[in-house]
Design a protein that fits this description.
The complex is a heterodimer. By secondary structure, chain A is an alpha/beta fold. Chain A contains 14 helices and 14 strands. In chain A, helix 1 runs parallel beside helix 4, helix 3 packs across helix 9 and helix 3 runs antiparallel to helix 13. Chain A starts with 6 loop residues before the first helix and ends in a 29-residue tail after the last helix. The N terminus of chain A is likely disordered.
Chain lengths: ~350, ~375
């Protein structure tokens, strides 16, 4: 997730990082307390986006949904056997890290790119990436393009961000192509210019392109997002450093969804699978006890996740894939068995 | 010899004391701001200094008056941005002045239609925020057809949502000579005008200044053209790939910004021109009529020279406003100084340096415009003999 910086934003970031530092200290002070604290109060306080379609957005009844929201729900299901035991805290890009560091939230699932600085200096721990994003290109379907390599000579609309302009320049230079950028600071103006045909391509994080397409276009098939991603944006849930029990639960809650997809378990078929002879499935669903005890939760923790939230494929297709308006292909987010990066370690 | 307490009662001493105190306070505040910033940046490990100017910029710029690519330095990128700012400001000042003078005279016209239209224009453009006007112009230009369905307004000139494409002359060695001859022509034309004026002043006989000056201006380049035999070959834009290739182009961002700034500032200039003209007593017009001068000549020879004295000082601040308003370019994607500086600041994290440089550059541009206009003002000011 990127945000464009102005002098003001820098000033805000600087002041925020002061809070961040003090927050990090208090976070360390209550080390190990998050797991017990969550168990005691009976719900997970989850930090989410203010509203990013497909990742975390409330509907007209105030019910939150999205890929990141499913992460919160999976953790609640593992902890309490009930995916509904989540309270949401909508956070801006500037607020998100301090909110976690200060203990205001227990889990941050807000399309946050995992970076070295955040993992170390900011005092966070990252659970496995739940969405591999990257800067991409969106073009009109009328152009009939199949690859970003065909964009030589194109005019490209760019939202100025921390590295957006540099990424696109690097990509064209590396492929010995030229382009003309049109750089507009305001999101709406940039989108208007692109859809009016001022540019041949619009570049931003691929998930954002899909969200823009879902919001602005009548027929999403009129615009295609080209397969090439030119930067790495691994969006990952984060917790405070210093509570390994809590970190373990969040980590394996996510892996459960991936493992369920790999084993072909869905929220519909999981009940029938309780009698499966497969030892891996038996261990996963708690028929063979052990995993729950190791994590400090009930043995049916993984069953609750799969039953109430679904496997990763279900969550993906419902929120950002074919079942949603975003229509994002699985791409890097497919299972490793299908050429993607989603891979759950053995759950035993 | 007065004692110190009595000295405090002296107006002179107290004047010095207060000025010294004020200076000390101002210096203390400045010192505090600078040292505080530097300390805070240092404690947060933020890099300071201008070393980044010589690093590779790594980003492309949409339009440039210089050859520029992503492998050039930040300094070059900022110069490209500065030249873009100067280009749109210079063109804007000229266009706004022409438009403003016409509308200003129109507001005083006895023709009802012209008068009402000028009033409507002034009241509308002055009372709608400039940012909105820029967005409107930009949206209109983006509504033009795509390059494949471009409008060919004149042979070789295409209008599309990618801007205006037009043919340009293919370079040839002879063009340098023609350009040189043009300068000779300009010098000759100036000499002719001076001669004409001197002859009129000494002998009282009129001299056909205009035709003679035009002839003096055009003859040398025409001769050079025939002698060098330079070809008149044009590079005409043609569709290729995504867009037109070849020829020259003006982008929608530049056009929208130029139109927006000129139309907006012209509204203010019109009012300045109107008030300047109204400041000249009506008796001057009557005196001109009594001498048998035509209305056009009265305006040109009697009214405007006197009105200029009133017009020039406020006009200067309009020129300054126009230049500074050009920084709204970031809203519609014209790569001006602010846009390029923002990108540089984003990438390097050296916001303080980037903002300081922007402020300094705008200050220098503004002072230069003021300096020029003050010089011009002294020239047109009433000379008392």
């Amino acid at each position: 997730m990127k945000s464009h910086l102005s002098a003001l934003a820098i000033a805000a970031t600087l002041s925020v990082s002061v809070f961040a530092l003090s927050g990090a200290l208090s976070g360390t002070a209550q080390a190990g307390a998050t797991f017990d604290g969550v168990k005691q109060k009976g719900y997970v306080q989850c930090g989410v986006n203010l509203g990013l379609y497909g990742f975390s957005a409330p509907d007209d009844k105030g019910k939150w949904s999205g890929l990141d929201v499913d992460m919160c729900r999976a953790v609640a299901a593992a902890m309490f056997g009930d995916a509904e035991k989540v309270k949401y805290t909508p956070l801006s890009a500037q607020q998100r890290l301090p909110a976690l560091q200060s203990g205001e939230i227990d889990l941050l699932a807000r399309n946050t790119t995992r970076t070295l600085t955040r993992d170390t200096a900011n005092g966070l721990n990252f659970a496995p990436t739940n969405y591999y994003d990257g800067q991409g290109f969106m073009v009109s379907a009328k152009l009939g393009l199949k690859s970003a390599k065909q964009l030589n000579g194109a005019t490209v609309c760019v939202l100025p961000g921390t590295t957006t302009e540099q990424n696109v320049s690097d990509y064209f230079r590396a492929n010995k192509m030229t382009f003309k950028p049109v750089v507009i600071e305001k999101n709406e103006e940039l989108n208007k210019a692109f859809f009016a045909g001022r540019c041949d391509a619009l570049t931003s994080d691929a998930s954002q392109l899909a969200a823009i397409r879902a919001a602005e276009v009548q027929n999403p098939n009129d615009y295609v997002i080209l397969p090439e991603l030119i930067s790495k944006e691994p969006l990952s849930p984060a917790v405070r450093q210093g509570d390994e029990e809590w970190m373990n639960l969040v980590t394996w809650a996510f892996y459960t969804m991936v493992q369920a997809e790999e084993k072909g378990l869905t929220s519909e078929t999981v009940d029938a699978a309780m009698t499966s002879p497969d030892p891996d499935v038996k261990r996963l669903l708690g028929v063979t006890a052990g995993n729950g005890k190791a994590l400090g939760v009930e043995e049916n923790w993984a069953y609750a996740i799969i039953k109430q939230v679904g496997n990763y494929a279900q969550s993906y297709e419902r929120n950002v894939g074919s079942g949603s308006k975003l229509k994002m292909p699985r791409g890097q987010n497919a299972l490793y068995t299908e050429g993607g990066l989603m891979y759950a370690p053995p759950m035993k | 010899m007065t004692n110190p307490v009595q000295a405090l009662n002296s107006a002179r001493v107290r004047g010095w004391l207060y000025q010294a105190l004020f200076l000390a306070c101002a210096l203390a505040v400045a010192w505090y701001l600078v040292s505080n910033t530097l300390t805070n940046l240092a404690t947060r490990g933020v890099a300071t200094g201008f070393g980044f100017l010589h690093r590779e910029a790594g980003f492309e710029i949409g339009e440039s008056l210089l050859p520029y690519s992503a492998s050039d330095t930040y300094l070059t990128a900022l110069v490209v941005g500065l030249l873009n700012t100067l280009a749109v400001s210079a063109a804007g000042v000229v266009l706004a002045t022409v438009l403003g003078v016409l509308i200003g005279i129109g507001r005083l016209s006895s023709n009802w239609m012209v008068n009402r239209f000028a009033t409507l224009y002034v009241e509308t453009v002055r009372n709608v925020p400039l940012l909105l006007q820029l967005v409107v112009w930009y949206t209109i230009l983006n509504r033009l057809p795509s390059p494949r369905e471009a409008l060919e307004v004149l042979p070789g000139i295409f209008l599309s949502n990618r801007g205006m494409k037009f043919p340009v002359l293919v370079e040839h060695a002879g063009h340098g000579w023609i350009l040189l001859a043009l300068f000779v022509g300009i010098a000759a034309a100036i000499a002719v005008v001076r001669y004409g004026r001197r002859r009129r002043e000494t002998t009282g006989k009129p001299f056909p200044t205009l035709p003679a000056a035009i002839a003096a201006l055009l003859l040398p380049p025409a001769l050079a053209f025939i002698v060098t035999g330079a070809p008149l070959a044009f590079d005409v834009p043609a569709l290729a790939g995504f867009n037109f290739e070849g020829g020259g182009s003006v982008t929608p961002e530049f056009t929208a910004l130029l139109i927006g700034l000129s139309v907006y500032t012209a509204g203010f200039i019109a009012e300045i021109v109107r008030s300047g003209i109204l400041a000249v007593p009506h008796g001057q017009t009557e005196a001109g009529l009594a001498l048998g001068l035509s209305p056009g000549k009265i305006l040109r020879l009697v009214i405007l020279p006197q009105a200029l004295r009133v017009i020039v000082p406020p006009l200067t601040s309009q020129y300054l406003n126009l230049t500074k308003n050009s920084s709204l370019a970031v809203a519609i994607g014209y790569p001006d100084l602010v846009s390029v500086s923002n990108t540089s600041a984003n990438q390097t994290g050296q916001v303080v340096e980037a903002v300081a440089m922007m402020m300094l550059v705008y200050l220098i541009i503004s002072l230069a415009i003021s300096g020029f206009m003050n010089w011009y003002n002294r020239r047109v000011a009433l000379v008392t003999r």
